[in-house]
Q: What sequence folds into this?
């Protein structure tokens, strides 16, 4: 990648980084171990679509040697923020933090990933993080689905692609969960449950399954009614201040319910963000200690179930099952083996490993909306790998992955069932007693 000469940079506006952040950029030693793990580089073969190339652009922007031109922004926008490069990096480069930091600085100048559509900006900032607003927004989609018009509407520009990605919506009555599920049998403890914003509208069945499973194995489950978005979607797209505000509110809401052994999360991106609330709110002295305590309690459902040493009375599921790793669970939280171990505890379940299981499916928050062509190509690669497993059931652990894979299953005629980990565990566990 050519370095811009001094006379070419006159008049360019830098995207300044503080000294500590700039030092993190310089941790990259340009070894290239990240290249074969990057889905966008695998597609284009272009160095500027790789983590190494993007980090170099970030450095040049910080030094004022390039401007935030359409070309530079295009390559930064194409990043999935999947963090597979972090897993591969021998130098421990904090790439996820860096790309989100730069997106924050760019978004403040109106140059964030969603800059090309005011409509999408509005959805991302003012609709998606609010479950009730999102529910009102998708009411027409409910009507379209009920009337069987999804395939017709799906042919329309822009709105059609959005409608096509919406899975069959659960009944409205499932939106509301009790604020408390009592522990059954021998009481093990008391946990909180994050219901999520998008998840509570599109996949409320996952929240029900999670609460029922935890209750059935002896945990009292507390579900604060006033909980809101965790801020992860906003943070990924450069709206750091909005995300921090949501984080403060969520910590406060869960603090009011009393002592909890854990806060259970079923969305990988949410969990990855919540586990670093202490870094997220490091400049807020009034909440920093609470943020530290809260972050330590955050636990993905899979790792929580994996920690239970006592036998769980699972019923047999004599089917072939494969697992897709959500990026922010495998790479963001380093939780890989726990979901597999939970599945393999189910009697007669035949587990088959998915090739490139920890490669992104193309969802990546709202990437499948903002970068539709790239997301489609990434999804096709994932679907091809799924088809080769011959699995009867494909399991994942993230609502965004469920949305994207469901869309891919429909588009490419995949016959396997698609379930969240909570749902298959519920099927294998008698939650009625």
A:
């Amino acid at each position: 990648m050519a370095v811009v000469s001094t006379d070419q940079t006159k008049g360019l506006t830098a995207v300044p980084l503080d000294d500590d952040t700039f030092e993190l950029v310089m941790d990259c030693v340009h070894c290239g171990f990240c290249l074969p793990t990057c889905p966008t580089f695998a597609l284009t073969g272009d160095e500027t679509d790789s983590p190494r190339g993007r980090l170099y652009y970030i450095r040049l922007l910080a030094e004022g040697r390039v401007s935030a031109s359409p070309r530079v922004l295009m390559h930064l926008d194409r990043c999935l923020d999947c963090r597979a490069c972090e897993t591969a990096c021998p130098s421990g480069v904090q790439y996820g933090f860096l790309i989100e930091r730069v997106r924050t600085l760019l978004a403040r100048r109106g140059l964030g990933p969603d800059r090309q559509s005011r409509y999408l900006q509005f959805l991302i900032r003012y609709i998606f993080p609010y479950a009730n607003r999102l529910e009102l927004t998708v009411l027409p989609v409910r009507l379209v689905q009920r009337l069987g018009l999804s395939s017709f509407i799906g042919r329309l520009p822009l709105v059609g692609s959005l409608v096509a990605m919406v899975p069959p919506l659960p009944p409205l009555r499932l939106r509301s969960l009790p604020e408390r599920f009592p522990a059954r049998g021998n009481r093990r403890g008391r946990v909180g449950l994050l219901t999520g914003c998008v998840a509570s509208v599109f996949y409320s069945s996952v929240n029900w399954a999670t609460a029922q499973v935890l209750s059935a194995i002896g945990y009292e489950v507390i579900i604060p009614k006033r909980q809101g978005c965790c801020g992860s979607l906003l943070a990924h797209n450069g709206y750091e201040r909005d995300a921090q505000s949501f984080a403060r509110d969520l910590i406060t809401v869960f603090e009011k319910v009393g002592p909890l052994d854990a806060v259970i999360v079923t969305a990988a991106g949410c969990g990855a963000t919540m586990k670093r609330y202490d870094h997220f709110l490091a400049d807020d002295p009034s909440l920093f200690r609470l943020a530290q305590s809260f972050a330590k309690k955050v636990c993905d459902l899979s790792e929580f179930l994996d920690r239970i040493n006592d036998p769980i009375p699972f019923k047999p599921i004599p089917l072939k099952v494969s697992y897709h790793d959500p990026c922010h669970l495998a790479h963001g939280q380093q939780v890989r083996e726990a979901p597999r171990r939970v599945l393999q505890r189910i009697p007669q379940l035949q587990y088959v490993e998915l090739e490139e299981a920890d490669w992104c499916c193309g969802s990546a928050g709202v990437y499948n909306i903002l970068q539709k062509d790239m997301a489609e190509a990434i999804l096709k690669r994932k679907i091809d790998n799924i088809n080769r497993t011959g699995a009867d059931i494909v399991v994942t652990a993230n609502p965004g992955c469920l949305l994207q894979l469901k869309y891919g299953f429909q588009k490419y005629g995949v016959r396997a069932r698609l379930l969240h980990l909570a749902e298959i565990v519920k099927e294998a566990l008698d939650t009625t007693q």
Q: What stands out?
A: The first strand starts at residue 180 and ends at 181.
